[in-house]
Design goal:
The chain has one helix and two strands; from the N terminus they run αββ. The protein has 43 residues and is of the alpha+beta class.
């Protein structure tokens, strides 16, 4: 599992929490999006 977390980190994801739910250990990750691209129109 640790190796998988390193892959996600290299892809730009960041860990922001860890918790146990229903007996499973969870790692919560998020990725910030570049919103400057949202204003471009295609056409």
């Amino acid at each position: 599992m640790y190796e998988n977390l390193r892959i996600y980190e290299r892809l730009g994801w960041e860990e922001y929490d860890r918790a146990e739910q229903d007996g499973f250990r969870r790692v919560f990750m998020r990725k910030r999006l570049d919103l400057s691209l949202s204003g471009t129109a295609v056409g």
